[in-house]
Write a structure and sequence with these properties.
about 110 residues, mainly beta, five-stranded antiparallel sheet, four-stranded antiparallel sheet
């Protein structure tokens, strides 16, 4: 494995859209609850809500576009286990409005 990092996200805050061109990730919610959204085709989405109590691992393969949102009104924290060290040059970031997902909490 290459790197572990933690990311906090506030209630209703959104972090999207990311795509790792090389790294694969395994993500665990360690505090709160988080909605993960994956783009399966152009403007076709799949979402899955996970809380720390679920003790689930999400595997995200490289070249998958995804985002996430804090859905617990306290702090929400994810742990990302990446198979290679983080390299900013292998991450593609898209603007939130580039993909029109309407399932975010407002």
């Amino acid at each position: 494995f290459g790197e572990i990092y933690f990311s906090q996200i506030n209630y209703k805050s959104i972090k999207c859209w990311n795509c790792h061109s090389i790294n694969n990730s395994k993500i665990i919610v360690v505090r709160g609850s988080v909605r993960f959204v994956f783009i399966t085709e152009v403007n076709k989405f799949f979402h899955h809500d996970i809380s720390a109590d679920d003790k689930q691992i999400i595997s995200i393969k490289n070249n998958c576009i995804f985002g996430f949102q804090g859905i617990n009104d306290s702090k929400n924290t994810i742990m990302n286990l990446m198979d290679k060290p983080h390299d900013i040059n292998e991450v593609v970031k898209y603007d939130k409005d580039e993909f029109l997902f309407d399932g975010w909490l407002s």
